[in-house]
Amino acid sequence: MTIDSHTTDASVSASSAAVAQPTAPVLVRAADAEVLADGPTSLITLLADSGATGGALTANRATFQQGSPGAPAHFHTRAGEMFLVLDGSLRILSGEQVHTLGVGDFLFVPPMVPHAFAPAPGRTAEALVVFTPGMARFDYYRLLERVHHGEATFQDVRGSSEHYDNHYVDSAVWRDALAENGPAALSTRQ
């Protein structure tokens, strides 16, 4: 596995900076949440971005149909990412290990650890995904939807890696895991 990015002094100091506390509770009703299609087999429901939480966290709900390629291998320098499976079964790469999580299972991936996720073979999956500290991610998800609709390219996504702290990597372990899902799952965003 190769990591194709560098940690800068700015990213280290940003991750160690104190998180401002939100001034009011954050309530998002399901009917009011923005739902994005980042591919033909997955949805991202936007719950709370870092601006709404005073930088404490960013949260979304990820929904995957059977055979979805999910998110390709990547890492973040400034935040950890948490996964709580709400329905179905989710496979997650964390470092060099692939874990299969069921309903109620939880996994935390620290900053700098390569990870990827997709539904387990033959299954659907729904998960609560939380970044802490929060990162402004909603525009990144909107960019993914624009790529899906042909209004932007994956080069636009790669060009935004530093801004959105989303650094793609190659993972033979994850490629092997996806091969179990069949050819459709191998056509990821990488």
From TrEMBL:
Sections of the chain in a coiled coil: none
Domain of life: Bacteria
Limits of the Cupin type-2 domain: 62-131
Protein name from the UniProt record: Cupin domain-containing protein
Organism annotation: Streptomyces gossypii
Organism lineage string: Bacteria, Bacillati, Actinomycetota, Actinomycetes, Kitasatosporales
